[in-house]
Write a structure and sequence with these properties.
The structure holds 2 protein chains of 2 kinds.
Chain A lengths: L10 H21 L13 E7 L5 E3 L4 E2 L8 E7 L6 H20 L5 E7 L7 H11 L4 E4 L2 H10 L4 E5 L8 E6 L2 E4 L4 E6 L5 H14 L3
Chain B lengths: L1 H18 L2 E9 L7 E10 L5 E3 L1 E3 L3 E12 L2 E7 L2 E3 L4 E4 L4 E8 L8 E7 L4 E9 L11
Classes of the chains: A alpha+beta, B mainly beta.
């Protein structure tokens, strides 16, 4: 484990998030009032969107995962890691409940995928990721990748992650800091929404259903 | 005869109080995927004494290490902050719960399934208190309604 990859959140990522935050503020304060977005989705939906490109990850079956896998489906992306006892299991339980309600809400489930993005590729192998997400739901996917490819994805959707050393000399003793939002990517592969915690199952179902109704195509 | 009984009764009552210094309720562990190397522990601790207690460390024979962590969510980023000790005020309560202060149970030494019981030893400067946590199905329900 080199210290470079285990450093705190890199400066460029912080700058990227600041820029994105300013852009979001401008959007909320200046542009959005003219958009006439339905109230139910105005805090989640990103009207202009942005294509997510250059994705070179591996999935839970050790198969390549590129932006092509976003096409034709709505994707919820959640950033986390399997050694995470509190935040990640809670989010996966929320999404398990969302999955149980989606078919009732709009029979949307077959065109929707939940993807756990592990930001801890040194410990989370595809095999571990597969067992981990399938425990919560057999349809859930998990992807991970080298740090440079993780960064390509996280920067484009405004997510952050970093590492903090634990107290022991064991090189596996470190904890992972990560964005807790859920990212929505549309079936054209565009970054299309952000769900912010704390997550409520019914809110996610309702908002997502409203986005599906509103979004063209 | 009676006069000899009083100190005995006093000692007995003192012992009961010492053992009861800390009590736990709603103590449970959400079942985790078998590959998970960490599990969470949730419970409510009550300090039954008239002075504040500092919880210094926790051990369990079923886990390599037990730590107390707090989940801090700031600007949409979740971070876990290790707590070296937890103060519980006199007659006060501290909740270890989802999204907040929680126990981090690291490297389970056996496979833990729902229904299993795990004993933790809570260490303060004065006493060790044994408590049991039950492994339950991981649901969004915090199990606090269960008795």
């Amino acid at each position: 484990m080199n210290t470079e990859s285990k450093s705190k959140i890199p400066l460029f990522a912080i700058i990227a998030v600041i820029v994105l935050s300013i852009a979001a503020a401008v959007w909320i304060l200046v542009i959005k009032p003219n958009q006439g977005l339905p109230k139910s989705i105005e805090n989640t939906y990103i009207p202009e969107g942005r294509p997510v490109v250059g994705i070179r990850m591996v999935d839970q079956n050790n198969q390549p995962f590129t932006e092509e896998q976003f096409k034709g489906k709505w994707s919820f992306l959640f950033f986390g890691f399997t050694n995470c006892p509190d935040v990640c299991p809670t989010t996966l339980l929320v999404m398990k409940s969302v999955w149980a309600k989606l078919p009732e809400a709009a029979k949307l489930a077959p065109e929707t995928q939940l993807i756990l993005v592990s930001v801890d590729p040194d410990r989370d192998t595809p095999a571990i990721l597969k067992d981990y997400v399938h425990y919560y739901h057999p349809d859930f996917l998990a992807i991970t990748g080298e740090h440079k490819y993780l960064d390509i994805l996280t920067v484009q959707v405004g997510a952050l992650y970093g590492y903090e050393d634990g107290e022991t000399d064991n090189e596996n003793d470190y904890s992972v800091t990560h964005s807790a939002q859920m990212i929505l990517i549309d079936p054209q592969g565009y970054f299309r929404g952000v769900f912010s915690p704390p997550f409520q199952v019914d809110d996610i179902v309702k908002t997502f259903t409203a986005i599906r109704d509103y979004h063209p195509g | 005869m009676k006069i000899f009984l009083i100190p005995v009764l006093l000692m007995l009552s003192f012992n009961i109080h010492a053992a009861d210094l800390l009590s736990a309720s709603n103590a449970w562990i959400p079942e985790a995927p078998p590959v998970a190397r960490v599990m969470a522990g949730y419970l409510e601790l009550k300090n039954n004494s008239e002075r504040s207690i500092e919880l210094k460390s926790i051990t369990a024979k079923d886990f390599e290490r037990v730590e107390m962590h707090e989940t801090i969510s700031k600007d949409g980023v979740a971070k876990m902050i290790k707590q070296t000790s937890i103060k519980i005020p006199a007659q006060g309560r501290v909740s270890f719960k989802r999204g907040g202060l929680h126990l981090m149970l690291m490297d389970p030494k056996r496979k833990l399934k729902r229904g299993d019981s795990v004993t933790l030893i809570l260490k303060t400067d004065e006493t060790n208190t044994e408590i049991n946590l039950i492994v339950k199905e991981a649901t969004l329900d915090d199990h606090s309604a269960h008795h």
